[in-house]
Specification:
homodimer; alpha+beta; Alpha-Beta Plaits; 3 helices
């Protein structure tokens, strides 16, 4: 399992529209091979910054499968009009931790 | 619920020692009032970069309670010798999403 961490700064005033666009796009991820879930967080210190955590079975499910699919084109068409800058994307793997109480 | 997102670049060659230090420090978080779990991810593109997701009941449980506690001093004593730079910390709240399949 690999986690895609995507940091997206949206244009000021576009926050509600961006969230609606992401909500409409969620089925694209839910239907994508290897996608195990999307979590969307909004910044406290920077409320126009969103962090998306998207869990993939393998790195290639994201970088090859999803990015090469029609679903990626539709995803970007929905959300990119609200971007203030290109998203910063990295991948990471869980090494430690879990729930506490 | 608020998520602390801490990005920590460690010194090259210190990865194993950093992970051991974090593991030893986990009980400090598990015992901290309002802390609901710690997840530690290691970067794929940048293997000396770690991202910690720490869930807190409230922002102040982290910024006031934990940072003002003896546990924070012990946490930093364990991990800071491995830092390549000061951690970048932000907070965020979940707005959308969940598990897929």
């Amino acid at each position: 399992m690999v986690v895609e961490i995507a940091e997206i700064d949206v244009q000021a005033g576009h926050e509600a529209d961006f969230e609606s666009a992401v909500e409409r796009a969620l089925p694209l991820f839910h239907a994508a091979p290897g996608c195990h879930g999307v979590q969307v967080l909004r910044g406290v210190e920077q409320p126009s910054r969103y962090t998306l955590f998207i869990r993939w079975a393998t790195l290639e499910d994201h970088t090859v499968g999803f990015r090469g699919s029609e679903a990626f084109t539709r995803w970007r068409a929905l959300v990119s009009p609200h971007f203030a800058a290109p998203p910063r994307v990295q991948h990471a793997r869980s090494v430690l931790g879990g729930d506490a109480h």
